[in-house]
Each structure stands twice: as structure tokens, then as C-alpha cells.
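Consider this:
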Amino acid sequence: MASDRKAALVLLTFSAGFAYMTARISAATLPGAPGPRTFPWVMVTLMAFLSILLFLRSSPNQKEKEPFSKAMLVYATICFYVILIPVVGFLAGTAIGIFIFFYWTLSSRKKAAIAAILIALALYIIFEFVFRIKLPSSILFQKGGLKLL
């Protein structure tokens, strides 16, 4: 079985589990108003639809496109990024994480560094000034320094 089909079946299983959990959420308190179930149902339906579409579009004899080791490298980078953000802050953590991803795909380190910095700054500006969402700051540079435990 092709890896796309396996992924589609796993995602469809997750969709079923999330649908079960969503069905257990209490209904809206106001008649006719969207309640706490609305957004989860939209997401579950979309995930199930895309899973079925992925299953139908992939052929059973399809060869692996990306090796498993590359997928694990991406997963490790995401885990590193999640751990890095509280330590160095959103701006620096995002720039480092994006640099690592672009370093694999772009031919030069200079292009990867410029792209990472520009994307991190754009995300920072959008969240801080447009959405007015406070992003995580660094524990290294807070008053009192690094506090582990």
C-alpha cells in the first residue's frame, strides 16, 4: 500500500476519533447561534474530506516520494523549534527554525538566512501589530535570567 494511502487511513481514523469527541461537546445555549461544536465539526469534516480525497488520488502502486529519514528530520526540526521558542523567544526561534528548513531546500546559506529573517519579521509584525497577539518572549533575557525548575 502506498504511503499516501496509509497516511489517508490514519487521518481518517483521527477524523473519526475527533468526530466522536466533538459529538460529546455540549450544545449551544442560544437557539440558532453557533455553539462550541461548530468549529470542531467544520475541522473534522474538512479533515475527513481531504483524507478521502488523498486516498482516492493516490495509486496503490505509487512509489515512495520522500524517504522516511527525511520525514523524521522534519519532525525533529519541528520538535526543536517548539523547545527553542520559550528559550530564545518567538522571533529568534522562528528565524532559526525557518533557516533550518530552508537550508535543506535552498542552495545557499545566505538565501536561507535572508528568507528566514524576513519571514520571521513578517510573522512578528503581523501577530504583534495587526492581530495584537502577544508572542512568547525569551526566558534567557528576562529579569533574573534562565530559570530551570
Notes: The helical segments are 3-23, 38-57, 68-88, 90-105, 109-130. The longest helix spans residues 109-130. The chain is about 65% helix and 0% strand. The radius of gyration is 21 Å.
